[in-house]
Design goal:
The protein has a single domain, classed as Rossmann fold, CATH 3.40.50.620. The chain contains eleven helices and six strands. A six-stranded parallel β-sheet has the order 3-2-1-4-5-6, with helices on both faces. Helix 2 links the parallel strand 1 and strand 2. 34% of the residues are buried.
Length: 215
């Protein structure tokens, strides 16, 4: 899909909408930098953050209540007019399958090109995702990687995909991907600082709501 990279942001053609799915437990600067870089690099009109209700691959882990994760996303993106948040997965309840979200977005934005933004590590497992062929036919994936990330494993894992679908998975380097929600939760539990890892408003919300203090 080289033509996407060559298209200047704002140039003619259908609108391009980014979808940023995730647990966001909590949202941090890695998520925000990834979304903003994708918006700029691929000329996205907006990026819509979609907090999951219950990620199918995290059913064995306790996650924060959805209302807290949604509130933190709203606080984190408030200053960026190109960012929006949707509670569609939370309102839908049940397992949060990406294909359901993408199809809903297609109905909301019938003329738009959809780009699903996620990490390269998640894309490594994409063959196990629900209705993966239909998913890749329905949107273009942007796989965010750390600088120096070896793409060989990604290509190897996806070797069984038809070339036409492989071309719908694009990569993008994002320096801030070293930040992780897992590390932030652990730091809060241990009383270590999380300042400068996530927006100040989100940090204050975590302490005010006493999140991540349990085991």
């Amino acid at each position: 899909m080289d033509w996407i990279r060559e298209k200047h942001p704002g140039e003619g053609g259908p609108a391009a909408i980014g979808i940023m799915g995730g647990t966001f437990d909590p949202i941090h600067y890695g998520h925000l930098v990834t979304a903003e870089n994708a918006r700029h690099f691929f000329g996205l009109e907006q990026v819509i953050f979609v907090p999951a209700y219950r990620p199918p691959h995290k059913e064995d882990r306790r996650i924060s209540p959805p209302q807290h994760r949604l509130a933190m996303v709203r606080l984190a993106i408030a200053s960026n007019p190109h960012f929006k948040v949707s509670d569609m997965e939370i309102s839908r309840r049940g397992p949060s399958y990406t294909i359901d979200t993408v199809l809903t977005m297609q109905r909301c934005y019938p003329a738009a090109r959809l780009f699903f933004i996620t990490g390269a590590d998640a894309v490594l497992e994409i063959l196990s995702w629900h209705r993966v062929t239909e998913l890749l036919e329905s949107c273009i994936f942007i796989a965010a990687t750390r600088p120096g990330y070896q793409l060989g494993q990604l290509r190897q894992n996806l070797a069984s995909l038809p070339e036409a679908l492989l071309r719908r998975i694009l990569t993008m380097e994002v320096p801030a991907l070293a930040i992780s929600s897992t590390d932030i939760r652990q730091r809060v539990r241990e009383g270590r600082p999380v300042k400068y890892l996530l927006p100040e408003a989100v940090e204050e919300y975590i302490y005010r709501q006493v999140l991540y203090r349990g085991s």
